[in-house]
Amino acid sequence: xxxxxxxxxxxxxxxxxxxxxxxxxxxxxxxxxxxxxxxxxxxxxxxxxxxxxxxxxxxxxxxxxxxxxxxxxxxxxxxxxxxxxxxxxxxxxxxxxxxxxxxxxxxxxxxxxxxxxxxxxxxxxxxxxxxxxxxxxxxxxxxxxxxxxxxxxxxxxxxxxxxxxxxxxxxxxxxxxxxxxxxxxxxxxxxxxxxxxxxxxxxxxxxxxxxxxxxxxxxxxxxxxxxxxxxxxxxxxxxxxxxxxxxxxxxxxxxxxxxxxxxxxxxxxxxxxxxxxxxxxxxxxxxxxxxxxxxxxxxxxxxxxxxxxxxxxxxxxxxxxxxxxxxxxxxxxxxxxxxxxxxxxxxxxxxxxxxxxxxxxxxxxxxxxxxxxxx
Amino acid sequence: xxxxxxxxxxxxxxxxxxxxxxxxxxxxxxxxxxxxxxxxxxxxxxxxxxxxxxxxxxxxxxxxxxxxxxxxxxxxxxxxxxxxxxxxxxxxxxxxxxxxxxxxxxxxxxxxxxxxxxxxxxxxxxxxxxxxxxxxxxxxxxxxxxxxxxxxxxxxxxxxxxxxxxxxxxxxxxxxxxxxxxxxxxxxxxxxxxxxxxxxxxxxxxxxxxxxxxxxxxxxxxxxxxxxxxxxxxxxxxxxxxxxxxxxxxxxxxxxxxxxxxxxxxxxxxxxxxxxxxxxxxxxxxxxxxxxxxxxxxxxxxxxxxxxxxxxxxxxxxxxxxxxxxxxxxxxxxxxxxxxxxxxxxxxxxxxxxxxxxxxxxxxxxxxxxxxxxxxxxxxxxxxxxxxxxxxxxxxxxxxxxxxxxxxxxxxxxxxxxxxxxxxxxxxxxxxxxxxxxxxxxxxxxxxxxxxxxxxxxxxxxxxxxxxxxxxxxxxxxxxxxxxxxxxxxxxxxxxxxxxxxxxxxxxxxxxxxxxxxxxxxxxxxxxx
Lengths: 375, 529
Description:
The structure holds 2 protein chains of 2 kinds. Helix content of chain A is about 45%, strand content about 15%. By secondary structure, chain A is α+β, with helices and mostly antiparallel strands.
């Protein structure tokens, strides 16, 4: 009888602790999708089973430690095997495992069903940003860490969403099945939003699939989950889930904005940039997009990322310099920036690199130099 | 005195003759000397790898970048992992194997003594190369100890070739050590020592040695492909040339998962010696222990892809690897149950080795539970590459493998040195370690569940409190190991004289020899009843 009471007490402790865990910030999120809720339930079931087994095993051990000690005059028993007991504790865990495997299998099969999606978004990871492409609309954008360097370097106070904020979040509608096609440009990254229970590796040269259907509007934050180089820790994922009407409004505004940008780009071709203007825009662009590798002072990191300050490329032929920035250098970490920056930004950043930190070439690169085919 | 006996006397003397000073250690072919070298080297590497962990924990003490740059942080996590796996845990087990296996099976020495010398002495070379690469322009390896391509190929620092050669040499050393263990156990057991009479430490090491021989060449192949991909234009892991970066992970983990068991099976042997000794009761279920070890070893070849559930495998493969991984908990459970049954109705005392062994059972089991949780594919999508995983493998490797190694040191130190260690300091070391290690690793579970990825030098503000706690635990655990160093030095230099059998309940041939054990173990094979 006493034993039964102990067991009941132990089990209720587990259940209550479990309930407490469910609402605190030390446990897995329940998320905002049906799948993430099922994953959470599965997690809690297994955690509880483990806790109960642990209580039984450690309880038996503790009992022996307290009662079967030599200092209490315990003398050792002689038994050292029992086929019955040994078979029992091989077979019982086996059945517990089957009990765990059934819900795990059904959940997994549902998670891997990527069919019948309403919207498809291609996600491309590169060092150290995400690119989102809306398949149905021929429209996409990069999403970069928005936390300023001053906060990271402890110069200014850290904001509420420190390291979990981006310039342009991915926007999706709620209650729609969104299919993600996930890939990478350089190394392996991993796209993870805990609230959706979606974590999928982005493998260069291959495309992975995942999907989600978000129930509640909101902003959901995650991070790159696969070591992808120096700034792996500075590559957040932010997703805004909007009700369908708001999503539609957002999308049409974006499409208009893109059309306008294209127009402006055409006009910029004819314009002439001054040195002052170029250096200002160039510095801003450089800090945002180049400094992570080449460093703020252009000195690079010896053996890993080449310096720009005093380098033959920055001081030599302009055409070669433009080529390396626009088209990248295959087989190295140097990305092609043709689609990442506007022609004006490209021109400005190259001018900046050719005239900052004592690289006083005096060259001003014009938009038309960067996009010669558009002349 | 006739000629024959004179020759014999000289012979005897020659046996015990050893060069003085440094050359004794450089030229030695004696299993005890080589065992000591391995153990001392392993402890040195434990301190070096530990110092790197201190750098990591210091940087993570609070959010923001304070002490190191992200690139150097990545080098620290990478080299910390490599050193602890290949420099601390594996050589410690090889050292224990060298010291103990000949004594336990009634052999005079290891079967291949000259190779034994070489397999040790190439290790310091390997680690010198690895550590020197940190000082190269561009830094040392910064792609994680798992060195996933293409981060370790196209995007890796110039020093990658040094990393590759260092791993090659470590691999050769491990293979040679493993061959020596297999040959010794198969050929040099005393008459009457049948396989099913061998101590479990010998059994687990025999199985471990086969695992090593099977998978170290796979690691060698992996690093060679990394080398040729980076320097010779091959495309094993580059999609542009028809390769596949995920192929790397399949090959690496085909090595990597058995490697995990390489680092824990000998621990099972150690615990199976210590628990009965201090329970004064025979080990419960000896033969099921042997079968469980063998099944774990076999299953270890069928579960590698559970490290790769997020790489985009077909659902059938995910299910297969999930089921196989879950199965491993059955034989592992059998072991834990057997240990508890051994303690049950025993006559327990709690000297330092026993304390570490009990802590091993409890904390390793916690690591086993989180392992089971990680096996469940749908939930693994949430746990994968977070601090939950970091917590899991540190529970099995630190409070598992390393606690068992410490238990072994305390247990056999009297036999090795001829002196009792300082029990008060030993207990201090234990309590300091067991408390700090849990402050260090337990909150990591919460960090992982709350969403903190591993291998990041900086983190969001909601992780700040736990990280601070973890760092404090880390510093305390690091400092606690200095007590261990003091205990070891004190015990080597002197102390209470140890009898041949200092532990009342211990069993095995090594306790029939005087303490310290003579330079040559059983010169005539002992009788096994």
